[in-house]
Sequence to fold (676 residues):
Amino acid sequence: MARSAPGRWRRLGGLLTGAVLATAAVAAQSFAFSRDDYSGPLTWTGGLGETVTASRISVRAEGVHAARAIEAGTSPGTSSGTGQRATTKGIFLVVDLAATSTRVPQRIAPPVLLTESGRRYAATDKVNGDLTITGPFIQWGWWVRKAAVFEVPPAELAGARIVVHPQEGNGGLIEPSAPEVEIDLGLDEAAAARLVSTAKDVHTLAGKP
Amino acid sequence: MTSPPGGAATRRRRPVAVPVAALVAAAGLGITAALGGLDEAPDDPPRRLGPGAVLDQGEFTTRFVESRATTRPGRYGGPDKRYLEIVFQVTNKGDETTGVGAPGQGGKPGYFFAGSLLRMTPEIRSDFGPDVFVQADGVPGKQLHPGMESTVVVRYELPEGRRPPGQVRLDVGTFEHPEGFTQEIGWLLAKDDDGPPVVAAQVTLPVRRKAAG
Amino acid sequence: MSGERRAFPDRQVWPPVAREDSGGASTQPFPAVRSAPLPRSAPPPGPLEIPGTARGDLPASPAPAGRPARTALRVTAAVLALAVAVAVPTWDGYMTYKDARPDDRVHTFAAGRTATFQHVSWKVAVEESDGLPGDRPLEPDRRWLRIRLTRTALDPEGVIRRGIPDVEVRHPDGRSWMAQITEDDVPLTAAEHRVGTPYHYDVLSLVPRALAREVSVCVRPSSFRTIENESFEDSMKRTARESELNDNVLCFRR
Fold:
């Protein structure tokens, strides 16, 4: 009996080690990347006013405004006069962006506003995309300054971040690990409330389309 | 081969108990099956709703506001065009911006919000289906943002010479968010297994005449 | 735990010994074979040797020389397996990417030279400008390049290859800028398009002023062949058969 004890202890130890390894293997699965994770975008982050470079593009958020209506600036070619004003049941958040390319000409895809509650607001389709950051090609050597416009409930403004990414390249492939820039707009509760209370009645998007 | 020893009485009773129990169970199952007890429980019948009713569609909370017939001057000086419009108040309860989409037509499935309008009686056919948009002062949109209420209009152009119906009945489905195995699938129309989408509500809306511009 | 164990004496379980109380019950499932057992397969000759024992596979007999080598082997195998697991999907993804976007075949020419490619000769003339008539003044860090691209068909095949080329302005380090064709005098039909006659594209590009002298104008001739009086289906079939890539780029230095 005394002779078999160490063997039994060793077997118990082996069983325990096995159980621990099995548990660890199962637990490790919860850290495994889902498909969305490993093919999802690579995100470069920054704050308001900072230049954030995400491999292909550099983006800077230079200012944030709120407005109850958006009007397109005088744009030759489009039907003039009525119908150019956009309104919303929430509020329009206008983010002034500056963007440039690090190598080859790029276009910016419609940006997304990521809120504290985890919601994703796509840039509004009520304003002409040519007047926003999605319009012009961005090229190396100079900054393109255009806005991104979102329609959001005022309560969602605090803690919001803007996500900007270049359009997919041609070739029709969905690119894994595409670059994106995420900028914290620096809106705490007080700043968000101030933004809403001082919202302009009409914000005019400048520039030729 | 011999049996173990036992009393004569037990030996006589035992072959009866098991077959009888089996027979009772089989008969019970048979009767249950014969009476339809093993069929899948039928779905709740579609709710019957009218103007102003609210339906929880999973991804959206939808109020069926009204249905109206409108007339608009034709383009390029052509004859006036008549439309049938159905108006909804839609709140996106999801986490992402989605679109108003379009109802299915001619076997082609619809998509996004209007994809849940499974059938309209009477049917109004056209080449490109109805125009679906978010109505607002000024520029109309096609997006439904999370947490925001939008007025969605589905506008059918009536074929020339066709009078607008007195009322329309919509078969409305709901959305569910199935857990994807490796990736997010998003909101899909609720279905019974692989069958057609489930009709959660039948909404009857009288058509209001209106000479809008 | 071990103290509670009791030792049992050995007991015969097979073949079953006749028990006094069994009273006719038999657990023997089938009749015993009375004949002599079949001869067993021949036992291994010589002393019984479990393979591996002598080489020290059992933990009881440690072989200090063998263990580190085997551990090293295992670690190497694990590292290799990990490397392969990472490398294969990456390589596959890269090959898919490259298949969709094949590398350009760049042909470089000195300023003012004429390049001949696929039955057409190409020539580029570049003029810098600070402003365009009727446009607002240009920011001081940028410059317009007004490019005049000349194409001459060298034979009837050159006339067939009259698709609109892509034009781009490139710096040798890989940066590039958009260039847009604003006007052209290239005839649409083969009947008007004469072999040996130069036709032009007017191209406009905006580049950083500091780099205006360093960039080259890169022309990607279209591989599209426009054959007169060919039905659409035939043209689609022929294009699929010819499967010519648009990967040749003619770059003219400034």
In short: Chain A touches chain B at residues 34-36, 69, 83-90, 118-122, 124-127, 151-153, 155-156 (CB under 8 Å). The helical segments of chain A are 5-29, 35-39, 189-197. The first strand of chain A starts at residue 42 and ends at 47.
